[in-house]
Amino acid sequence: MTSATRMGVLALLWGSGFLWIKISLQQGLTPGWITFVRCLLGAAVLLALAYGAGQRLPRDGATWRRLAVAAFFCNALPFLLFSVGEQTVDSGVAGVLNATTPLWALLIGLGTGTDRPLHPARLGGLVLGFAGVLLIFAPWSAGSGLMSLGALALLGASASYAVAFAYMARRLTGRGTAPLALSAAQLLTATGLSVPALAAGGSAGVTWAGVLAVVVLGVFATGLTFHLNYRMIAEEGPTSAATVGYLLPVVSVALGALVLDEPLSARVVTGMAVVLVGVALTRWTTGVAAAGGGAAGQGAAPVPEAADAVPQGRGTEGHGTETRGTERPAREVSAPAAAEETGAPR
User: Fold this and answer.
1) What is the per-residue burial (b if ≥16 Cβ within 10 Å, else e) of 307-339?
2) If we measure between CA atoms, which residue out of 46, 74, 4, 11 comes closest to residue 317?
3) Spatial separation of the C-alpha atoms in residues 15 and 8, rounded to whole Å
4) Residue 292 CA from chain centroid, whole number
5) What DSSP line would sit under 126-155, residue for residue?
6) Which of 248, 224, 56, 231 minimizes the C-alpha distance to 161?
7) Which of 10, 13, 149, 300 is the most exposed place for a label (fewest CB within 10 A)?
8) pLDDT single digits (tens) 26-51
């Protein structure tokens, strides 16, 4: 499989997550059940892959406590918020708002002092990115829904990813646990954390189409995409993997229009383009404009500045073994860098 083909497959699987959420909702599933089943099936896939690669789950209590925090902000909460948001907002728009995660990550990095000084181009990208969000929702138009529960939930989900990446960079990565096992443990923890959401409404009238949609969401758009993203980072480098993030909003908007007949106005398309240009500018480094954007439900946020930020066992995971004797001490990593280092699923 060529690099372009692999990138296209990954973008299609990842970007389709918003479509499967919308279909699941339309076919009777509640946001709580979608979140629970998605985490459960994603964890099952990653547990099987970790077992096949000979990677074991962490055994120390400190790691599991950190995983609980990461699982809440990186999986249980944003997965639930995306499902809540898509009850009233189109799946394509949800995919576009997911791409704002690097903007939130930059704000967190600046606020906590963990990000590098703000270059004028990055400042412009930050302003431009959020201007694109305003353009999409057009608050100056009557009934635009900018302050609706759905819109706020989607923005909250993207911000939650950014919080998770900042935490994971400082407290979870680079501590010797193999990446597939770490991610499997995280989604397993998220499954437990999502149980209380099951009480929020019943799932009467669920159709087989809804069951199929949530199965595809959990197995392919959550579990399998993490593995494919990790393999791309390991084999082709973080820049190629991060580039997929730019394709996710395009995929979500296209699928929403083609499959669900969601309206595709010139304003939304323009807003999407503005958001992506803004995200690209926030990835600016001296002499380099690096790729950026994140998924997913679902993808990894970019790390233009951290050439050495690779998953543990990068050189050998593709062969099912973990690198030994190369563990580095924990280091401070900027918020946008965390997801690239962990390959965290969205």
Assistant:
1) eebbbbbbeebeeeebeeeeeeeeeebbbbbbb
2) 46
3) 10
4) 12
5) HHHHHHHHHHHH-TTSTT--TTSHHHHHHH
6) 248
7) 149
8) 999 999 999 999 999 999 999 999 99
